[in-house]
């Protein structure tokens, strides 16, 4: 999504300042009104500022689920980052100190053991794994859903996307992805926590679960694994009270809005692209007084088919 959006913006004269980190936003609070007056940022090793004009608008990404991600490789484990070095969290903490209407980031980042999990991306030189998993699952790549191994102590899940997955991906390259929700539990075949495993060991654990044992040597020889330890990947699901997430447009805000996974959209579900899109729509339509409706929600809890499937699942055993 990023590349076409950037091209669209540039064609309309938008100037993108790269390599810049917003460190703080000056906000004047008077009589219940909140007005952002200055952006403070760091770029090229220098502290800089932008004074905001009367009609300037500020859209803030407060918090980030992928902040402080560390990476490993085929033979190296990722190191868990426990200090908040990501700029989006530090910016939100400074804003939250100015007004309770700007939320409370501590509710989401104080228990890394509850919000972390590990993912891995595999780049392969042939379609061996795709062929085996398609035959095993009965679904073509890009056509089926996620494949979760429910007996895995790491609760491993893998995804085969339609290829090519990336723009300009070579025709002789296949890319797939997976993750584990419980990285601190010992594996069933590699008897170590996922967080202490190399990419090679994670691949062995997965292939052993799938009973692709005879293919392990070939797949290991033709694959490269990049692991990612993400301390805040499910932070948005942490227990919270209603005011921990700020409203998209905080009460009394004249020109500042939040557009992340950590702003409040009643009835919506975080961890989706749709949530980010609706946050942006709410912010833009509200601050610019655009008379349009935000994209509608899917109310699955009112769908008889969903309720019946849920009932069947509850009575499976």
TrEMBL record:
InterPro entries: FAD/NAD-bd_sf, Oleate_hydratase. Coiled coil: none annotated. Pfam families: MCRA (PF06100). PANTHER family: 67 KDA MYOSIN-CROSS-REACTIVE ANTIGEN FAMILY PROTEIN (AFU_ORTHOLOGUE AFUA_5G09970) (PTHR37417). This is Myosin-crossreactive antigen.
């Amino acid at each position: 999504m990023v590349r076409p959006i950037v091209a669209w913006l540039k064609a309309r004269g938008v100037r993108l300042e790269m390599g810049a980190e917003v460190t703080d936003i000056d906000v004047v609070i008077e009589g219940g009104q909140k007005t952002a007056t200055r952006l403070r940022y760091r770029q090229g090793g220098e502290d800089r500022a932008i004074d905001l004009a009367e009609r300037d608008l500020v859209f803030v990404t407060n918090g980030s689920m992928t902040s402080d991600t560390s990476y490993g490789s085929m033979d190296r484990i990722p190191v868990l980052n426990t200090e908040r070095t990501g700029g989006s969290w530090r910016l939100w903490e400074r804003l939250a100190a100015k007004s309770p209407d700007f939320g409370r980031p501590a509710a989401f980042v104080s228990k890394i053991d509850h919000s972390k999990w590990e993912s891995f991306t595999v780049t392969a030189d042939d379609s061996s794994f795709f062929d085996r998993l398609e035959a095993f699952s009965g679904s073509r790549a890009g056509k089926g859903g996620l494949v979760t191994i429910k007996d895995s102590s790491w609760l491993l899940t893998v995804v085969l996307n339609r290829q090519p997955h990336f723009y300009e991906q070579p025709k002789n390259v296949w890319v797939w992805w997976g993750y584990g929700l419980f990285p601190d539990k010992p594996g069933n075949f590699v008897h170590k926590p996922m967080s202490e495993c190399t990419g090679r060991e994670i691949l062995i654990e997965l292939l052993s679960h799938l009973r692709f044992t005879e293919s392990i040597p070939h797949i290991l020889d033709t694959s490269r694994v990049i692991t990612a330890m993400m301390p805040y990947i499910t932070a948005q699901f942490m227990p919270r009270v209603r005011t921990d997430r700020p409203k998209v447009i905080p009460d009394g805000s004249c020109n500042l809005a939040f557009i992340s996974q950590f702003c409040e959209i009643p009835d919506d579900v975080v961890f989706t692209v749709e949530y980010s899109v609706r946050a942006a729509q709410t912010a833009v339509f509200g601050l610019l007084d655009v008379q349009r409706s935000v994209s509608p929600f899917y109310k699955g809890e009112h769908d008889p088919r969903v309720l019946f499937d849920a009932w069947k699942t509850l009575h499976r055993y």
